[in-house]
Amino acid sequence: xxxxxxxxxxxxxxxxxxxxxxxxxxxxxxxxxxxxxxxxxxxxxxxxxxxxxxxxxxxxxxxxxxxxxxxxxxxxxxxxxxxxxxxxxxxxxxxxxxxxxxxxxxx
Length: 107
Prior knowledge:
By secondary structure, this protein is mainly beta. Helices cover 6% and strands 28% of the residues. It has 2 domains: 1-39, no CATH class; 46-106, Single Sheet (N-terminal domain of TfIIb), CATH 2.20.25.10. Strands 4-5-6-7 form a 4-stranded antiparallel sheet, with no helix packed on it. A 3-stranded antiparallel sheet has the order 1-2-3, with no helix packed on it.
């Protein structure tokens, strides 16, 4: 990873040179550093946790330590997503296996 000497922003490789994503400054590519890191441009669908309305929770892990506020059922599917800063606990999203009601829990 290479950072801009002008503004400190992260630089990206373009046509054999490094270009600052912040101010547009260019610099020679540091080949020694470039060989040590791998950059990816895409995230596979396997890494994405869907929590939006209409998301299919079926097949996700289940838990029996919750109670649905709508129907009182005690088993729900859940996913976990980091919605705050890295030093904060993740948010758990639930979907009741009985009625389909959705809710979230902040730890």
